[in-house]
From TrEMBL:
The lineage of its organism: Bacteria, Bacillati, Actinomycetota, Actinomycetes, Micromonosporales. This is L,D-transpeptidase-like protein. InterPro entries: Big_10, LD-transpeptidase, LD_TPept_cat_dom, Transpep_catalytic_dom. Residues 259-380 form the L,D-TPase catalytic domain. The active site is at residues 338, 356. GO terms for cellular component: extracellular region. GO terms for biological process: cell wall organization; peptidoglycan-protein cross-linking; regulation of cell shape. It comes from Paractinoplanes brasiliensis.
């Protein structure tokens, strides 16, 4: 039996998501708005460029720019490509045909300068690049080009992150694409997905098999107090099949305190830890054998103080409509942590739910008042394993497996 929740996850979305409670069917990965970064986690659009301070002043400066002067039909995501020897880039200025300056930054590897916004269609742009040699002498070079018209076919994008929000330590950066990005096109898209963390922490992008989602995370949960700055710069970017990214997406958010929930089917108990210390334990009832809870590392994706689980659409005459309090979604397929006054007698003793984590009304309220979107909940010892992509699941893969999903080479130090 499955229940359909009359609510949607708070996010920037492409299309609404059907919510199915406490069951395995009918769920889908939600849509949202997105952003891109390099596979190692640095923000290419926030890079400082190549620093060749030690290069000899006797090396002649050689600089080639792209797009070439006079180039037309240039994608709206175009970067100023820099093939440089004998110096370092000290200034890049990009202007539109009215003379307005377009902001932007060098990639960390110095191979290109990335505009800070999607360029306008059918617009002529001029770029001026200044290179300083080791002896202090400067060389200036220019190029001009014209962008293409407004793209006809687009790839929808979404980003599950919002400005000025505070998230749990397991909050991954989640980007969605509709339709999904094929393998051959993922590297180019990933190069336009930028993430920076303060304090600095390593991270890698990893794609789901169908290319509909990309997750960004580090080897460990984020440090409490971390600031995440994300830009998915895919507006006007060729994404394959004659499609172009619909728009740029960006967000800057905070990571809060460490708060973890660990559920053990053997003991039928949840252990709650904050900042590494156990602060509470409580009895639970998990899914019965016919509708088992899944085992794995999940993340709180949505919170509803009051909602309705409706299974009549999926279970027909066997379905039901039930008011639910303090519901916290942990999978797309319909598993939740929620108040279950009807199963209090079974909690801590036996499993009677339709896959959800049942707790008492008092414990459900206590948790609801303390959790954040992005807090981790780990369930172990049940009959069924969490499916990858059934929710925000990047933490359910060992790091060595997770990094294999990157479309770009991963530095040896991060493998």
């Amino acid at each position: 039996m499955r229940r359909t929740l009359v609510a949607v996850v708070a996010m920037a979305v492409i299309t609404p998501v059907a919510l199915v409670a406490c069951g395995k069917d009918g769920g889908k990965q939600g849509s949202s708005a997105w952003v891109a970064t390099p596979s190692a986690g640095a923000d290419p659009s926030a890079g400082t460029g190549t620093d060749k301070e030690t290069e000899s002043a006797t090396v002649p400066v050689s600089l080639a720019l792209t797009p070439a002067t006079g180039k037309t039909g240039v994608p709206l995501s175009t970067e100023i490509g820099l093939k440089l020897a004998g110096g370092k880039v000290t200034e890049v200025t990009l202007k539109d045909e009215k003379g307005a300056v377009v902001p932007g930054k060098l990639r960390d590897d110095g191979t290109a300068w990335v505009p800070g916004k999607t360029l306008s269609p059918k617009q002529k742009y001029s770029a001026t690049v200044v290179v300083t040699a080791g002896d202090g002498q400067t060389t200036t070079q220019t190029t001009s080009f014209t962008t293409m018209g407004k793209p006809g076919k687009k790839t929808g994008t979404g980003l599950y992150l919002f400005d000025d929000r505070t998230y749990g330590v397991a909050m991954p950066v989640v980007v969605e694409f509709s339709p999904g990005i094929k393998k051959a096109d993922r590297a180019a898209v990933q190069r336009r997905m930028f993430v920076s963390t303060s304090p600095a922490q390593p991270g890698v992008w990893s794609w789901t098999p169908n290319g509909s989602q990309a997750y960004y995370r580090g080897p460990e949960f984020w440090k409490p107090g971390t600031t995440l700055a994300v830009r998915i710069a895919v507006g006007g970017l060729p994404t394959g099949g004659g499609r172009y990214g619909d728009r740029d997406r960006s967000a800057t958010a905070k990571i809060g305190r460490s708060f973890e929930m660990k559920v053990d089917n053997a003991s039928k108990k949840m252990t709650v830890m904050q900042d590494g210390k156990t602060i509470k334990t409580m009895p639970v009832s998990l899914g019965k054998k016919s509708t088992p809870s899944v085992s794995g590392v999940m993340v709180v994706m949505e919170k509803k103080e009051q909602t309705v689980f409706d299974t009549t659409d999926t279970d027909g005459a066997d379905g039901y409509v039930t008011d639910i309090e303090f519901a916290q979604r942990i999978t797309w397929s319909g598993q939740y942590l929620h108040s279950a006054p009807w199963s209090v007698g079974a909690q801590g003793r036996r499993n009677v739910s339709h896959g959800c984590v049942n707790v008492s009304p008092g414990n459900a309220r206590w948790l609801f008042e303390r959790t954040l979107i992005g807090d981790p909940i780990t369930v172990k010892g049940t009959e069924e394993k969490l499916g990858y992509g059934d929710g925000w699941t990047p933490w359910d893969k060992p790091w060595a497996e997770f990094v294999k999903g990157s479309a770009l080479p991963v530095p040896a130090s991060l493998k």
